[in-house]
Amino acid sequence: MTNRSLFTVVAMVWATVGGACAVHSAAQSHEKFEIEVSYTNDIQPIVNNFCATCHAGGDPQGDLVLTSYEDVRRHTQEGDLLNRINDVNDPMPQNGLMPASMRRLFETWASQGYIDRGKPIATAEQQQMREFTPPKIVPVDVRNQGFEMLESLQGHWVGSMNLMGQELDWMAFDFRPVAPSHVHAIFEGGTIGNLFTSFFVAKFRGKQTIMARNGGILNGIYRTSYFVLDTVRYGRDWAYYRLVDAHGGQQVMFMELTFRGDTLDFNAFTSRFGLTTPRPHMAFRGRRMHPELAMSAAKVVDFPKNVIDYEFPSTLPKPTWSDEYPLTSASYVWERDADDTSPSRAAVAELGKLARDPRRIDQMPYLSELTVSVRRDSVTQGKKLHVYLSRDALVDQRGHFLTRFGYIREERLNTLLSFPELSKNANEFTFTYLHPGDYYLTVIADMDDDGLPSPGDVTHSRRRVKVDPESHPRIEITDLNVRN
Fold first, then answer.
1. Is the Cα dihedral 377, 378, 382, 383 positive or negative?
2. Tens-digit pLDDT profile for residues 98-127
3. What is the rounded distance in angstroms from the CA atom of residue 137 to the CA atom of residue 165?
């Protein structure tokens, strides 16, 4: 596994297809600003879309919080924010510089005295957004072709990923059926949030097609975006599928999946709700492992069947991420109090209602929850916790890592199915959207803060957990005291 904090990983992954949060105004594109630039109308939307994924919540990257007017002004006026957003060698955000027009907005805002609330003024770029015309999307009818994509997708995919230009040498997604025509996976990021992706057969604009639902919750922001299958191609030994934003089409965001035997290439492109042209965000290549996990779920839920899992009426409900400008994306957004670091299934379902998400967690079959409570002692206080669910055990009966050269054996790490990270002050976590099954649960106190299980870290005796469909067991770890 890479020596990278999972906080950073999930923050970047979560923004893969759909952006970080709601965008309420577009950035100006003038070379010179002769209009008033305010935090509320101009700076905050940019911060929400480009910065909030990493710089919010109880464990922000670099201990830099950018969630309020006071935060952003202080780091602009007294800190290094202006330099970092213009630094080509060490940019913020990490995947590259923001558009020049947005960076100039920060400079103008500072020169005008850090105006908090100003009068909204339409600019040329905002006018262009007002004139956005959704493209005509022609869904693929999976009664004729494409349905096999769901069967190809099921599996525990383990591989590597290029994320926003950075190489992650280990990543995994666990796609399993949850209904006769529905495959689902979730990436639990821990106390900052999660990312889920579902693919299912839907009736959309009169066609029986495959749609994707991608989203999650991060630092108090709940988002779900919808995609629709519009392209299928076959080669001698490969199959290619493209799903585009269900409102804005390919020009807003899209994802591509290519299967070659037991290999998956999963690429995602995003435009941050239309603020930019779509550009590469995620490129994952993985190999299918442990197929028995998906196969056992398929038997239980009678998968695969080419039947409609969810039916939309004439079209999707009106999305919720913008009140002022024409909608470019089939995305549903709601912000909540970020203090609730591990929301329950009921809380997430309520957020879905507020965001008018067409398919909430309480409408998804078969999935479960698991709450893990950890008792810390003086040694592990103030340390981040890795909470691992794996197919195979990572520790022996006494709690010592099953190692080679001092590190957990690679073949055992490759059985990790979910791997959230808890902030230094968190003692409890709830897995949501969890596949039922038998797991080994391993909580690891990261004593050297290196982001991965390593010599010197503290764990506990081996624990096996059984999760039944639509259940909510609670596990308490009271012996987190085994030094490796």
1. negative
2. 778 788 888 888 888 888 876 655 555 555
3. 30
Report the distance separating Cα 231 and Cα 148, nearest Å: 13
Angle subtended at Cα 370 by Cα 365 and Cα 371, rounded to the nearest 5 degrees = 145
* Residues 393-402: b if buried by 16+ CB within 10 A, e if exposed: bbbeeebebe
Residue 62 exposed, middle or buried by CB count within 10 Å (0-12, 13-18, 19+)? exposed
Q: Which long-range contacts (C-beta less than 8 Å, at least 24 apart) are formed by 27-33?
A: 27/99, 27/101, 27/102, 27/105, 27/125, 27/275, 28/101, 28/105, 28/123, 28/124, 28/125, 28/126, 29/101, 29/123, 29/124, 29/125, 30/101, 30/123, 30/124, 33/104, 33/105, 33/108
DSSP 304: -
Under 8 Å between Cβ of 164 and 280: no
pLDDT in tens, 249-272: 998 999 999 999 999 999 999 887
In the DSSP assignment, the letter for residue 317 is P
Q: Are 274 and 326 in contact (CB under 8 A)?
A: no
In 73-220, the DSSP E strands lie at: 155-163, 166-179, 182-190, 193-204, 207-218
Q: Is the peptide bond before 313 cis (omega within 30 degrees of 0)?
A: no
Cβ 355 vs Cβ 421: under 8 Å: no
Hey, is 174 helix, strand or coil? strand
Which range, 14-18, 129-133, 288-292, 406-410, has the best average confidence (pLDDT)?
Answer: 288-292
**Calculated CA dihedral for residues 369, 301, 357, 285, nearest 10 degrees:** 80
Amino acid at 402: L
Of 58-67, 200-209, 421-430, 454-463, the least confident? 58-67
**Structural tokens at position 263:** 């290999």
Pairing relationship of beta strands 474-477 and 368-374 according to DSSP bridges: parallel
Q: Give me the residues paired with residue 244 across strands.
A: 228, 254
**Dihedral angle over CA of 212, 215, 216, 217, nearest 10:** -160
Other C-beta atoms closer than 10 Å to the C-beta of 409 total: 14
How far apart are the C-alpha atoms of 138 and 330, rounded to whole Å?
15
Residues 6+ apart with CB under 8 A from 269: 17, 253, 254, 255, 256, 278, 279, 280, 281
With a pLDDT cut of 90, the percent of the chain lying above it is 49
Measure the CA–CA gap between 416 and 171, rounded to whole angstroms.
9
> Residue 472 carries which DSSP code?
-
